[in-house]
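Write out this protein's structure.
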Amino acid sequence: MQNKDLNLLKLLVILNEERQTILAAKRMNLSQPTISIMLKKLRDQFDDPLFIRDKNNLTPTIKCENILATLPALLTQLDKLYSDNTQWDISQLNGDLNLLISPPLIPTLGSQLIKKLTLLAPELTVQCSHWAGDTPQRLENNPHQHFGITYLPMETNKTLLEQEIGGDEFAFVVSNEHPLQQASIENVLLYPLAICLIPGGITGPSKAEQLIRNLKIKKKINLRTSDISLMTNLLKESNYVGVMPRTLQALMQPYFRFLSIPHEIVPQSYQRKIALFCHQTNRNQPLTEWLIKEAKEILNSI
């Protein structure tokens, strides 16, 4: 194979994942005619059609499947090699860095991550926003210095990299003056219930509501909100019982009590996973790897 081009090999992988040249073009930020030219070069170099059109999709040939079996690991090693040979200095970061973070994670993970970023990269401006329903699309359309952090499961497509960085338990939360002392199902049912909502997740009832419904408990959810300030004010001023992530526990003490949710509702040691998202073009980039490493360390320390 002469005139080897790393991007041509990447195209093979992406075409196999997307099965349409127009989707591959969008993912590689190239025009569809450019993708067609690149595919022709690949066909000439390998002396094989590589992909056969089947209605609206492309199907790999046997030779293409054999090539694809070796490519992902090879491309990952090559990306790592180039990254390792590049002298990256976080202090040289500048411009805007967009962080889109699930609201419950902003006061804890978000604040610590931003504190360290701005300390190490003083010329960088961090723009922090709430993760919302349109965040995956924003990350797809803005590959440069746009990153998101939220709870799983999250509906995205293959354009985005999803990297797990930790997990979080959820608990019942009440004010210190609340009469609830033991979080049994029977006791919790006596009070209005507020659910901490995770924006942009799988549509339908929250995970907590699903678990309550599975037990066929007739309990109305009185409030769903992603606004942490609203929830804390409500819990402080009333007998509401909240369902909130434990990552907020240290921040909310000593004014609130966190009570473990009974194992009949939530299995013991159950955690909702947390992931970092970004455009696939940022895979193995030094900034991406730094954010993943720091986010993991922060979550482990909370």
